[in-house]
Amino acid sequence: MNKKEAQELLDKYAANLCTPEEKAIVERWYAKESAAQPEPIVNDLDQTKAEIWTGLQEPGLAAEERKPRFKLWIAAASLLFMLMGAGFYFYTLRPEPSFIAAGQTGADQLPGRNEAILVLADGSRIILGQAAKGTLATEGNTLISKVDEGQLNYKASVKDSKTSNAIPKYNTISTPKGGQYRVVLPDGTIVWLNAASSIRFPTSFDAAQRNVELTGEAYFEVAVNRAKPFNVAAGKTNVRVLGTHFNVMAYPDEASVNTTLLEGSVKVSTDKTEGILRPGEQAQALNGKIAIKMVDPEEAVAWKKGYFYFKDADIRTVMRQVSRWYDVEVEYQGNVQKMAFSGKMYRNVDILKMLEALSYFNVDYKLVDTRKEKGKNTIVIK
């Protein structure tokens, strides 16, 4: 059993999706390892797997091993993990931790949702989370429809697709903090918008090229059309493709504009330089310069798949993502401890569970109700 299989097995156990045989594997392994050491090693599953499968029918299998603390431990293990050298370790829970500090609200802060605002060419606004499914507007010969919760479709008519001299009409879709949305552009390109992001685009592309403007973060699956390049302008960085899958992160509060390629190839350029990306590479554009390096693409697109994924990230990097997704303010007091965070966590949990996970890294925090003063809660990190 490799690391990925072990992680998937723990995820299934935490979600109560395991078969009886899989439950037995996890529980027998935990009972064996917890008696020997405080931090079970996932690689040791290989050493006990065969013995467990042959002894599944033993009377009272794991009957006294299924304790509440074990269930909590597995839940944490499925969320937080660390790569330590050649071993794959999980952090155990501290007994009865206290998460609500003085001055901290006990109310759950819900995670983000499918929410965005559509601004039409005439400036009128449609709140997509409140709009009913069906046709929302018509721009020229392009039909704009909400086809599902969280998805907007642009469909250009045959007549419109052959029209190249018409003055383009531009639409903008913006997500707030705590929002995300998906849009299918007139050419069939699919765009996933992360929280606090916006994309501006013509309701029909001209005959020569397909240009869009991005602020924040988006994942693109570009419809192939070698005769019409697809260009993403993110500040002073431009990404040019013919048809491929890539992610662009261009938040104003991040140090660089990061373009991560999953499939195909793209050209990333600034006013000073340019570079060609291959799958698994990321271009980091800063001050007109571009640095290209190999990365784990999963880390860049984890948000699209519904989870946070950090690799050796500092607390401020982590909290910027938390702030955008949960729509909270973050304040730092005193000398905040320097540490690196590595792990995964689903984005559909409330904020207290997210902070609970961070507390296992000894993060000193409190969630303060500042909704009257700021319109949102504040996380204070010490």
TrEMBL record:
Swiss-Prot/TrEMBL keywords: Membrane, Transmembrane, Transmembrane helix
Keyword hit for Membrane: yes
One Pfam family from the record: FecR
Listed GO MF terms: sigma factor antagonist activity
Protein FecR C-terminal domain sequence ranges: 307-368
Domain named FecR protein: residues: 172-267
Top-level lineage group: Bacteria
Name the UniProt record assigns to this protein: FecR family protein
Record lineage: Bacteria, Pseudomonadati, Bacteroidota, Sphingobacteriia, Sphingobacteriales
